[in-house]
Amino acid sequence: MRRERKRLPLLLALALLLCGPAASGQQPGEQLDAEVARVRQEIQELERASVPAGRAARHRGIVEDKRIRLHGLLQQQRDQLSAYRDLLVRNRAADTDVREVEGEIQAKASEMEEVKGALRASMSGAASPARPQPGQTPAQPQ
Question: What pLDDT digit, counting tens, does each position of 73-122 carry?
Fold first, then answer.
């Protein structure tokens, strides 16, 4: 009896985890699209934010984490499109359909490169120390 009580919350959590996506009524591709849109929105909000003094480095790290997440999601979308294209090719679908999917794959790859470039620019800016403006003296380490 006691052992069954311990298992019940575990079983409920497992059931929710497995049935959660099905209960929401969304297909995996739709969930991925929604997650991409959400992360894009978060990045835009973070980029527009007014960052308090002393928080710039931490804020930049948060934005970088979001960009890394977005890149991973875009990669998943590209991989799904590639698998779908392969399915179309195997089933001898119309060339126009295959080309359309290949165009979407290229668009995802291009978007991934943009995100990667923004991430590189952000990280290279964080790695190099701030240069003093003409007439200023560099800060001395304490």
Answer: 999 999 999 999 999 999 999 999 999 999 999 999 999 999 999 999 98
For the stretch 52-72, what's the b/e string if a residue is b when 16 or more beta carbons lie within 10 angstroms of its beta carbon?
eeeeeeeebeebbebbebbbe
Where do the DSSP E strands lie in the chain? none
Q: Which amino acid belongs to residue 64?
A: E
- CB-based contacts of 74-80 (< 8 A; 24+ apart in sequence): 74/36, 74/108, 74/111, 74/112, 74/115, 75/112, 76/32, 77/32, 77/33, 77/36, 77/108, 78/105, 78/108, 78/109, 78/112, 80/29, 80/32
- Note the pTM of the prediction, 2 decimals: 0.68
Contact (Cβ atoms closer than 8 angstroms) between residue 102 and residue 85: yes
Burial 15-35 (b: 16+ CB within 10 A, else e): eeeeeeeeeeeeeeeeebeee
